[in-house]
Amino acid sequence: MPYPSNLINELNALLLFNPSNPLDGIKVHHNADPEMAEAVQSLFDKGMVTQVDGGYLTDLGQKAAERAEDLLTMMH
């Protein structure tokens, strides 16, 4: 089964964070791509980021971002 596009968008959103520095956050602005805004909202709903528009990674988000980065490195 292939990855659904919304999950790919969430993985791409996780890659915007710097998992080695928990003080680096992101903010999705009101004029951002709607798919990115939805992805970050979904990450918030899953408890991976601190704000509906980004914020910082939670502990769970930190682990997910590290794994997303690892997977990208392996696949390249």
Tell me what you see in this structure.
This protein is mainly alpha-helical. Helices cover 51% and strands 12% of the residues. The chain has one domain. It is built from three helices and three strands, in the order H-E-H-E-E-H. It has a three-stranded antiparallel β-sheet with strand order 1-3-2. The model has no long low-confidence stretch (mean pLDDT 95).
Task: Write the SSE topology.
Layout (H helix, E strand, L loop, with lengths): L4 H10 L11 E2 L6 H12 L3 E3 L2 E4 L1 H17 L1
Antiparallel strand pairs: 1-3, 2-3
Helix pairs in contact: 1-2
Features:
TIGR02647 family protein; 3-stranded antiparallel sheet; CHP02647; globular; 3 helices; 76 residues; mainly alpha
Largest sheet: 3 strands, antiparallel
Mean pLDDT: 95
Enumerate the spans where pLDDT stays under 50 for 5 or more consecutive residues.
Answer: none
Measured as a percent range, the helix fraction is 40-55%
Number of domains: 1
Q: How do the SSEs run, as a string of H and E?
A: HEHEEH
Task: Kindly estimate the percentage of residues that lie in beta strands according to DSSP.
Answer: 5-15%
Q: What integer value in Å does the Rg equal?
A: 12 Å
Q: Based on DSSP secondary structure assignment, what is the total number of beta strands?
A: 3
How would you sum up the global shape?
globular
| Number of discrete helical segments | 3
State the end-to-end CA separation: 21 Å
Pfam families: DUF5669
Protein name: TIGR02647 family protein
InterPro entries: CHP02647
Organism: uncultured Thiotrichaceae bacterium
